[in-house]
Every structure is written in structure tokens, then in C-alpha cells.
Amino acid sequence: MDEISQIYSQVGDERLRQMVAAFYRRVKVDDLIGKMYPPDDWDGSEKRLADFLVYRFGGPQTYLEERGHPRLRARHFPFSIGMEERDRWLTLMGQAIKETGIEQARAVVMGQFFAQVADMMRNRES
Ligand code: HEM
Q1: Which one, 21, 50, 52, 109, has the greatest CB density within 10 A?
Q2: How far apart are CA 10 and CA 16, in angstroms?
Q3: How many Å lie between the centroid of ligand 1 and the Cα of residue 49?
Q4: CATH code that applies to domain 4-120
Q5: Any idea where the domains of the chain sit in the sequence?
Q6: How many beta carbons lie within 10 A of that of residue 92, not counting itself?
Q7: Is the CB of 51 within 6 Å of ligand 1?
């Protein structure tokens, strides 16, 4: 098993969801990326990202059952994502990881994963 699929068992369901909650507390009030999210469905956005990460990090596959194949790049096409938006997403997630007290070794693995995926989401020249 690769390092990414061990994160769920190491970090645990509760802390992963706390991390996503801490992330969305920041996204909600963010001047650059906050306005991209559906304003009346913050709980839904939080659940989709949390379920996706639980699945991707080796936990239950609820995300797949409810949303199907992630197709993340396609699902981000409706949003204009350049380097600024990518960097902001990563900054807010980095703060959320810190706030949640994720252990350093795990934080590094997660950070590399997030950086890779976030870069793939770019669909606009900056
Ligand atoms: C690069 C900057 C990014 C921006 C600006 C961005 C923005 C958004 C927005 C506006 C949504 C729609 C909210 C919703 O309906 O859930 C969304 C959905 C989502 N994003 Fe991102 N995102 C970014 C990067 C990422 C990364 C790095 C990941 C994963 C590691 C990710 C995973 C997801 C997931 C799983 C969904 C829900 C997809 C679905 O099932 O509909 N996003 N994102």
C-alpha cells in the first residue's frame, strides 16, 4: 500500500473531518475562492470533500457510492482556477492541517498530495 492510502487509518475519521471543517471555515470568508462555492450548500461541500479524502486516504468508499468516479478535473471546469486560486486553496488547507494538529510526517504526505492535485485543477493561464 502506498503512503497516501494509509493516512485514513493513521489520522482517523474524526480528525480528517475536523481538518476539512477547519478548511471550510477559512474558505467561507476567503475573498478569492470563497465566492466560487455554492453559498447555500456549505455542509454539502464539506461532506463531499471529506468523503472524497476519506476514500482517497484509504477509508470507506462512501464518496464513490454517492458521487461516482471523482472526475475531479472535469468537476472543476466550471470554476476559473489559475495559480492564485491554486495557491490560496493550498494555503488554507495548510492552515487547516496545522490547526488540526496532524502529525508532521502525515502532514508532509498530505501536503504533497494536495499540491499535486491542486496543480492539476488549474484550467486558466494566470
Ligand atoms: C486548486 C484550487 C481549488 C479550487 C479553487 C477548488 C474549488 C472547488 C469548488 C468551487 C467546488 C464546488 C463545491 C462543491 O460543490 O463541493 C469544488 C469541489 C470539489 N473539490 Fe475542489 N477546488 C480546488 C482544489 C481541490 C483539490 C486539491 C481537491 C482534492 C484534493 C479538491 C476536491 C474537490 C472535491 C472532492 C469536490 C467535490 C466534487 C463533487 O463530488 O462534486 N479540490 N472545488
Answers
A1: 50
A2: 10
A3: 7
A4: 1.10.490.10
A5: 4-120
A6: 20
A7: no
Grid cell 504533497 in the structure block, residue: 112
Over residues 69-98, mean pLDDT: 98
**What separation in angstroms does the CA of 33 have from each of 3, 38, 93?**
29, 11, 12
* Environment class of 69 (CB within 10 Å of its CB; exposed 0-12, middle 13-18, buried 19+): exposed
Burial class (CB in 10 A: 0-12, 13-18, 19+), 126: exposed
- What is residue 106's three-state secondary structure? helix
Predicted confidence (pLDDT) per residue in 31-55, tens digit: 999 999 999 999 999 999 999 999 9
Q: What percent of the chain has pLDDT over 70?
A: 99
Is 118 a pocket residue for ligand 1 (Cβ < 6 Å)?
yes
